[in-house]
Amino acid sequence: MMLLLQAAATLLILPFGLLALAAWRRMEGMRWGRPGAAWFPTGVCFTAVGAYSGAQALLAPVLQRMEHGSAAYTEAVRWFQAANVGRGCGVLVTAAVLAAVLAVPAGQAGRVARGGTAPILLSIVAGTAAAARYADFELKPYITLLSVIAGATVVVLLAVLFVGVARDGMDQLLWMALAAYSVKEALSVCLFLLLAWWSVEMQAAAWVAFYWVNGLAMAGMVLLAIRRLQHARAGAVVPALFERLHATRTRAPGEMFSGD
């Protein structure tokens, strides 16, 4: 059950990325403005990370058949662990790109979203290569490294979610998808720290619950992306989370988050 849940959560990453890109492509006239532009770096990231994760999942049975303790097995495990670091770096950089998309004036959001593609992809490759070369893959330092990356990602994503609401910078479906991912990452940080620093032994039931949360979060993100694609195909505009509420408010000149 645990391996099935873990595989399901992993294999849902790629569909979310592909659906996000498909929805973005259908946003005629809204692709490079707000709130549509934020879907592009999100789709790029999760497509790349999902493909990476899927390759790891497919190669895992091969790894299990290798002779444990052999040089080939040790090197393969090292690259698998390094890939986890690389994927985390990619999501962290994506969160930073989304923050930049929301921070710049609306007319520049598309340029920032386009320009963020290369750093996202480069961070995945560079993070993997750097980890494979320099990282210490003993349990405590390795899990601590993953915790630091995931924790930083959560902090940046929370800022993105706040600014996304304050500036109506992303539609409510993407906001909810990123919120679900933030919750998943926050739980991962807590679990990693418990394992690394407090030597807490997790029972099988706790692991199953953890992977259930991961799987449900990713499934929810996929459903939200499907819904956004349906709206895009229909030519419908999806509002920001509190856009209608903000529209009823009279804004004074120079007010914070007054728009661009």
Automatic annotation (TrEMBL):
Q: Is Transmembrane tagged as a keyword? A: yes
Q: What is this protein called?
A: Uncharacterized protein
Membrane-crossing ranges are 85-104, 116-135, 141-166, 173-198, 204-226
Output the superkingdom of the source species: Bacteria
Assigned keywords, A-Z? Membrane, Transmembrane, Transmembrane helix
